[in-house]
Description:
A: 20% helix, rod-shaped, B: 11 helices, 4% strand
Amino acid sequence: KPVPMNAFDLISTSQGLNLGTLFEK
Amino acid sequence: MGCVSSKHVVKHPPGYEDPVILASETAFTVHEVEALYELFKKLSFSIIKDGLIHKEEFQLALFRNSNRKNLFADRVFDLFDIKNNGVIEFGEFVRSLSIFHPNTPKAEKIAFAFKLYDLRQTGYIEREELKEMVLALLDESDVFLSNDIVETIVGNTFVQADLNGDGKIDLDEWREFVKKNPSLIRNMTLPYLKDISMAFPSFVMHSEGSD
């Protein structure tokens, strides 16, 4: 697997930051 | 009979704010704020039925599990909890979600993301904080990377972002970094918010404003 370019790219994929889930019924 | 019909008496929980005022201070229209109230009610009555969003209710909505601990969800909750009293009130919910509205200026989203990642609220994203966040992300995603690789990723990030080389990322450096890597604030925009009144149309039935 390629190492991500930067740590924030990695962090921004956290489920805890995916607020779209709040809108799922 | 002289009685006032109880169906017109609308009782709101503490922290409820007038949608007209909230709309004037956020990216939402009055109807969108009313629609958000439907979502807010759903979340804030999911476990503790008091019309306030508690951490467990927030976790339940995000992960379908009220006990699931997550560093980033904790940070989002703490930032939404503007009064810092352990719960998210309706006004706080709307004001915070407004940051995620597609029409909200990028500068606000960038500043919010910075606060999110500045775990200890020192005004800087420090190397240790960044490493802690990377480890938290790896833990949640069940991916294993050796300490050397994690150090390399964090180190590379600092080479790119810490322009003055003082070992920490300040807001100006963060702005520059996001300018070069716009995907970093992709999760600060929720397209759902543009259609919120379609997603929660039942507000029309309950809205005081529709009387």
